[in-house]
């Protein structure tokens, strides 16, 4: 048995999310089947750093697994890429200590969210951005992002249905940058953990603040009320990317 | 009757090309049906600057048509965009003299071709680039491009099946530029006209020259032999964009 860590990118458009589900095309399902094929077994279980929803992309998802045999890192990288569909690319394969676990060893994650600012939907970016054609004051967004950084109870920003009780998370960095050349604004969030749909709800709320539909410091109120109904919007999956997972 | 010119962008991935065909989703078909809906008729015929194949994209395709009524340019732009699927965007609507014809009035066209240079296929660019992971000497490509510029008989670079007899075309500009930030090289060709598949065959030949699989000045030989079998390759549709159509 050899223990591996893979770092991978995928276009989430044609997946029913990361997590395996019967009768659905999922990233985990594709990985497990490919590894099974290599090892001549049915499938090999992989642990992911966390799930991504249908339509959500990854620039640096991480998975770990035990493989029955010892394949050098570069050979594992080549072999897995040769078995991947074109919407998954394995970026890196590493042999790691058996104690490494893609989810439990993770210390933090970084998400990116791309917002298209054109008047109409850009055909080439419709699957890779959210779209917000309304006037947007980035100074207001910057000001609101200061309230996002820190340790907060994000109950108002978690989709219902999650089983996790503790909704307190720490955001180390929350930024927005203008990319006028591509007519986009790009959010990044780096934190120790994220609740279900949290980034997409944060982005929707920040856009509403930037367009004057909410008070600049509405986050302070939303943390206090702990009510998902107050932060209504959820930005589309298409703009969201799991950019990086951090380990010690 | 008012005569209009539309400039549009589309993601060619999910179209069976520009030109209308029975039972197929085509750009022309979508445009004609939308205009018909606006005018409350079955469909309104549109003339395109030329067809693009299935999977080929457009950043600036041009069409023209007669519309039974007089709609201001901005209203036409808004109305058409509201009827377009997300993979077509109307960039501009103009009222033009009746003599204007998207194809017959065109004086030249510019095509762009994006080549991904990564070792493996990039999931996010698989539908928007060709892929050439082999070593590539851009100096050799630059040298070969000098042979592309000018007036030549492009018989060796036209897919068979075309009905056009005269295969002489003039290329005003042919360039390649390196985009190391995106790990791509980008070709552009500006000429008075292009034969069927010509840009894709030119690109495949140029890549072979750049990788040392053909002589640098192989174009000179290929013009002379007038034999499609000699320029074998055709770069994938996914990398090709109709960038601009020029009119007087």
TrEMBL record, chains A, B:
Enzyme class, first EC level, given as a word: isomerase
Chain ranges passing through the membrane: none
CDD domains documented for this protein: PseudoU_synth_EcTruA
Binding locations of substrate: 111
InterPro entries: PsdUridine_synth_cat_dom_sf, PsdUridine_synth_TruA, PsdUridine_synth_TruA_a/b_dom, PsdUridine_synth_TruA_C, TruA/RsuA/RluB/E/F_N
EC code(s) of this entry: 5.4.99.12
Pseudouridine synthase I TruA alpha/beta domain span: 9-105, 144-248
UniProt entry tagged with the keyword Lipoprotein: no
One protein family per Pfam: PseudoU_synth_1
Active site (catalytic residues): 53 (nucleophile)
Catalytic activity, reaction form: uridine(38/39/40) in tRNA = pseudouridine(38/39/40) in tRNA
GO molecular function: tRNA pseudouridine(38-40) synthase activity
Presence of keyword Isomerase: yes
Keywords: Isomerase, tRNA processing
NCBIfam families registered for this protein in UniProt: hisT_truA
Subunit structure: Homodimer.
Family: Belongs to the tRNA pseudouridine synthase TruA family.
Function, as annotated: Formation of pseudouridine at positions 38, 39 and 40 in the anticodon stem and loop of transfer RNAs.
Record's protein name: tRNA pseudouridine synthase A
């Amino acid at each position: 048995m050899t223990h591996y860590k893979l770092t991978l990118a995928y276009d989430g458009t044609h997946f029913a999310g990361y997590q395996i589900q019967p009768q659905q095309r999922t990233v985990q399902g594709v990985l497990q089947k490919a590894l099974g094929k290599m090892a001549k077994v049915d499938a090999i279980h992989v642990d992911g750093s966390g799930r991504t929803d249908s339509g959500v992309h990854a620039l640096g998802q991480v998975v770990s697994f035990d493989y029955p045999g010892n394949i050098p890192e570069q050979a594992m990288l080549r072999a897995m890429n040769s078995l991947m569909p074109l919407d998954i690319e394995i970026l890196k394969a590493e042999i790691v200590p058996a104690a490494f676990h893609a989810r439990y060893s993770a210390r933090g994650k970084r998400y990116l969210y791309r917002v298209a600012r054109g008047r109409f939907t850009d055909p080439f970016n419709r699957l890779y951005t959210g779209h917000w054609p309304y006037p947007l004051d980035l100074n207001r967004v910057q000001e609101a992002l200061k309230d996002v950084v820190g340790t907060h109870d994000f109950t108002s920003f978690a989709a219902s249905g999650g089983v996790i009780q503790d909704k307190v998370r720490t955001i180390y960095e929350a930024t927005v940058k203008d990319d006028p050349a591509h007519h986009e604004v790009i959010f990044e969030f780096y934190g120790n953990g994220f609740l279900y749909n949290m980034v997409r709800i944060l982005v929707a709320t920040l856009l509403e603040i930037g367009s004057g539909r909410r008070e600049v410091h509405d986050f302070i109120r939303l943390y206090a009320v702990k009510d998902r109904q107050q932060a209504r919007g959820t930005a589309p999956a298409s703009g969201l990317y799991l950019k990086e997972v951090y380990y010690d």
